TrEMBL record:
Catalyzes a trans-dehydration via an enolate intermediate. Coiled coil: none annotated. GO terms for molecular function: 3-dehydroquinate dehydratase activity. This is 3-dehydroquinate dehydratase. Pfam families: DHquinase_II. Keywords: Amino-acid biosynthesis, Aromatic amino acid biosynthesis, Lyase. The gene is aroQ. SUPFAM superfamilies: Type II 3-dehydroquinate dehydratase (SSF52304). It catalyses: 3-dehydroquinate = 3-dehydroshikimate + H2O. Its EC number is 4.2.1.10. PROSITE patterns: DEHYDROQUINASE_II.
Length: 150
């Protein structure tokens, strides 16, 4: 069974309580539950990780090289400037999908720039919790098409 690493970046542990007008009312646990249901239907296993620390995220990405077939990542604020996370994703060379709850391109100008997207197979944003679900479905489809789900 293929394993996909799901990474939630900084401040996402506060979902459901912070800026509901932007990020919605779903908690991180509710997002993870929705992803688990999709994964079950597609016979993939998920590993969830949340950190507010750039180095911890990089360590987890590097460890995924040995344990995962793909990565679903919401890098949060690191999206806009973390060359180190970008380089870790590039180094492990696992198919990666970047997701965002909000439409980063419709917000403040600085949020429209992502250093992560260039090393990802796709990006989904603006659909709240559904962004994660759509991103996971796209990643699973990519893995299936490339024979990487077994």
């Amino acid at each position: 069974m293929a394993r996909i690493l799901v990474i939630h970046g900084p401040n996402l542990n506060l979902l459901g309580r912070r800026e509901r007008d932007i990020y919605g009312s779903d908690t991180l646990a509710e997002i993870n539950h929705a992803l688990t249901e999709v994964a079950r239907r597609h016979s993939v296993e998920l590993e969830f990780f949340q950190s507010n620390h750039e180095g911890a995220i990089i360590d987890k990405i590097q460890a995924a090289m040995e344990s995962a077939r793909g990565i679903l990542i919401n890098p949060g604020g690191f999206t806009h400037y973390s060359i180190a996370i970008r380089d870790a994703l590039s180094a492990v060379a696992l198919p990666t999908v970047e997701v965002h709850l909000s439409n980063i391109h419709a917000r403040e100008d600085f949020r429209g720039h992502t250093v992560i997207a260039s090393v990802c197979i796709g990006q989904v944003g603006g659909f709240g919790k559904q962004s994660y679900v759509l991103g996971l479905m796209g990643l699973v489809s990519h893995l299936e098409q490339n024979g990487r789900t077994a």
